[in-house]
Design brief:
The protein is of the alpha+beta class. It has a single domain, classed as TATA-Binding Protein. 35% of the residues lie in helices and 24% in strands. The protein contains three helices and four strands; from the N terminus they run H-E-H-E-E-E-H. A four-stranded antiparallel β-sheet has the order 1-2-3-4, sandwiched between helices. The longest helix has 16 residues. The protein starts with a helix and ends with a helix.
């Protein structure tokens, strides 16, 4: 399994939900390498999948917490998948279900 394969998995989940809009994939490893930044030696690859659940726009303050992202890091012997809790329960439930679904994927 590679970071690109995990990214593809999340892109499939996003595409399957009509209330979620895929925005981009950010290759964080490439960016940090390109600018001469520091990367922990155990991180072999790293990317973020960026997307938005924007099902409501109740006030301008919510713009600061959108869009959402899921980070994927290849640690050599395992993957670390991270996301920040969203202020909207359906978004959290979806991101948790998608991430837990990785354990059940062949």
């Amino acid at each position: 399994t590679t970071v690109d394969e995990v990214v593809a998995y999340f892109k499939e989940k996003i595409a399957a939900n009509p209330k979620v809009k895929f925005i981009a994939v950010f290759d964080h490893f490439e960016h940090t390498t390109h600018i001469g930044g520091t990367i922990a030696p155990e991180i072999k690859a790293a990317a973020e999948v960026i997307f938005c659940f924007g099902i409501a726009l109740p006030n301008p303050m919510v713009l600061a917490v959108r869009p959402r992202s899921i980070g994927i890091a290849d640690m050599g012997d395992k993957f670390v998948v991270t996301f920040l809790e969203a202020p909207m329960a359906p978004a959290n439930e979806a991101m948790e279900a998608w991430t837990k679904g990785l354990h059940n994927k062949d």
